[in-house]
Design brief:
Blueprint: E1 3-7, E2 10-12, E3 18-25, E4 34-39, E5 46-51, E6 58-60, E7 68-73, E8 78-83, E9 92-98, E10 103-104, E11 108-112
Parallel strand pairs: 2-11
Antiparallel strand pairs: 1-3, 3-8, 4-5, 4-9, 5-6, 7-8, 9-10, 9-11
Length: 114
């Protein structure tokens, strides 16, 4: 079974940074495009960042461009999201996902507040 476990969330002040990690199992991680998404209560899950199999291609939602960086370590089956210059509107539950098949894993809460 596909398993995606995100971690690294927490409470941070505006302007701060967090690094999310997602450990994948149950499929060939290195052969799959991956993404991060986020969801706030009452709204649909929205994609935030995308990365292809070797990390050579990335895409970002306009709202996070220049502040967030997606990366991956295929040897460790791990996906990352470095989040800098965090804003209150970044507050959400963040999920990592496997693009093929539309899988989303368990999320991690990120709260940006003073």
């Amino acid at each position: 079974d596909v398993q995606l476990q995100a971690s690294g969330g927490g409470l941070v002040q505006p302007g701060g940074s967090l690094r999310l990690s997602c450990v994948a199992s149950g499929f060939t991680f290195s052969s799959n495009d991956m993404r991060w998404g986020r969801q706030v209560p009452g709204k649909h899950l929205e994609w935030v960042a995308y990365i292809n199999t070797d990390g050579g291609t990335t895409h970002y939602r306009n709202a996070v461009k220049g502040r967030f960086t997606i990366s991956r370590d295929n040897a460790k089956n791990t996906l990352y999201l470095q989040m800098n210059s965090l804003k209150p509107e970044d507050t959400a539950v963040y999920y990592c996902g496997k693009v093929s098949g539309g899988y989303w894993g368990q999320g991690t809460q990120v709260t940006v507040s003073s």
